[in-house]
Amino acid sequence: MLTGKTIVLGVTGGIAAFKAASLCSKLVQKGADVHVIMTESAKQFITELTFQSLSKNPVYSDTFDERDPSVVSHIHLADEADLVLIAPATANMIAKMAHGLADDMLSTTLLATEAPVMIAPAMNVHMYAHPAVQANMRLLESRGVMMIEPGEGLLACGYVGKGRLEEPETIVQVVERFFAARNESVQGQGLLRGKKVIVTSGGTVERIDPVRYITNDSSGKMGFAIAKAAKDMGAEVHVVYGHTDVEPPSDVDAVKVQSAEDMYRAVLEHWEDSDLVIKAAAVADYRPKVTAASKMKKSGDTMTLELVKTVDILEELGKTKTKQFLIGFAAETNDVEKYAQDKLKRKNADLIVANDVTAEGAGFRSDTNIVQVYDAGGLVEQMPVMTKDEVARRLLTIAAARMNGALS
Ligand code: PMT
Q1: If both were cysteines, with which of 131, 198, 204, 328 could 277 make a disulfide (CB 3.0 to 4.6 Å apart)?
Q2: Is 0.85 topped by the overall pTM?
Q3: Domain DNA/pantothenate metabolism flavoprotein C-terminal, which positions (predicted)?
Q4: CATH of domain 6-152+165-182
């Protein structure tokens, strides 16, 4: 899996630096060409010779220790890397990265590289929870740096909690999955070229009065991941989204709506000439019968709100579809398969993606999901816990194969 991949492994100064030796060895065993850069503090915990012996490559720690006159080492390593992995990443290195400091070989290489960067933080539980560290990590994430969250347990400092470097085996799995996903995305490029795709995302908002409404927990992450993946696969993408916690991808046509009725109308704008529609939005099943024009006043101990059914967008699309491939989602809390199958048939969808929204790592707001894909014949695929980006790519690969007449 890692053969032919050049990984720059940055090792910074924490007690977990000793685990980086095992990590280096495992990456090499998987076929990676590993180049280690150590900070001066890391050398307090483990020697350069250890990494040199394991990686069979020279180890760098001094920006000015130029061994090959034909190249500038930190630029050469930065250019050669397919991935820069920092494990363990101390609070200090995370802060340097967040603020763009370049005062040693590793931080300088990090500024110079265009390769993807993944970091596995490790530190004391209170340091990890410190708002400055958390803010720096969020900033790095917003720039695309991938985090391998530390595990919980007994820390070298004596505390029990979150801050322990993730186990080398797990880090290697994350690295392998990263390259596999990138490979899949390269293979997937063009799979939806020329196709028009509509994706709905987020939760609808059904107004009670000017200050109150009914909505749900959808963050928009699942729908936007699908929109982004469809765009990457070459499709023309229209996103219709309601209430979300995150912004839609910047390079797709995105229309913000409120209610189920608004969403239905916006979807119909592109429906006729669309090829693929994915309804990841969490649409309210009921709305207040009347929306009060002014703020409703408190009166009496109880209040009854009369609700009426909203339009079922997926069901309506299912009735009028011609060439369109229709994918619905099913957010369930129990009897997932039964309800998913029922929705597939009732709404005349080609595929239903079921998620148990009570499962850890699945459903609303989380960055990951666990889904089962069904067609009229039953289970098509049970996906393990995957990031929503990975779920999106896999789902669209299945859909593209079916739209092109090949089952997947
Ligand atoms: O946005 P995230 O935080 O990332 O969370 C993702 C998610 C949990 C919202 C997503 O994975 C998901 O499950 N979306 C569907 C939510 C939902 O409304 O499920 P449902 O089982 O109630 O509806 C079944 C299908 O019918 C859905 O495709 C839904 O969009 C559609 N529907 C439902 C009601 C309605 N009035 N019109 C519809 O089109």
Answers
A1: 198
A2: no
A3: 192-399
A4: 3.40.50.1950
Sign of dihedral through CA atoms 392, 394, 400, 402?
A: negative
- Name the residue of 239, 263, 283, 339 to mutate for ligand 1: max ligand atoms within 8 A of Cβ: 283
The pair of structure tokens assigned to 318 is: 């299912």
Tell me 323's DSSP state.
Answer: S
Give, for ligand 1, the residue of 259, 263, 314 to mutate: max count of ligand atoms closer than 8 Å to Cβ.
314
pLDDT tens-digit series, residues 124-162: 999 999 999 999 999 999 898 999 999 888 888 888 888
**CATH of region 194-403:** 3.40.50.10300
Q: How many CB atoms lie within 10 A of CB 285?
A: 12
Q: Where in the chain are all domains bearing CATH 3.40.50.1950? A: 6-152+165-182
382, two tokens: 């049970």
Atom of ligand 1 nearest to the CA of 280: 14
- Give every CB contact of residue 316 below 8 A, 6+ residues apart in sequence: 264
pLDDT, tens digit, 9 for 90 and up, residues 29-78:
999 999 999 999 999 999 999 999 999 999 999 999 888 888 898 899 99
Tell the residue number behind the tokens 């011609």, with chain if given: 322
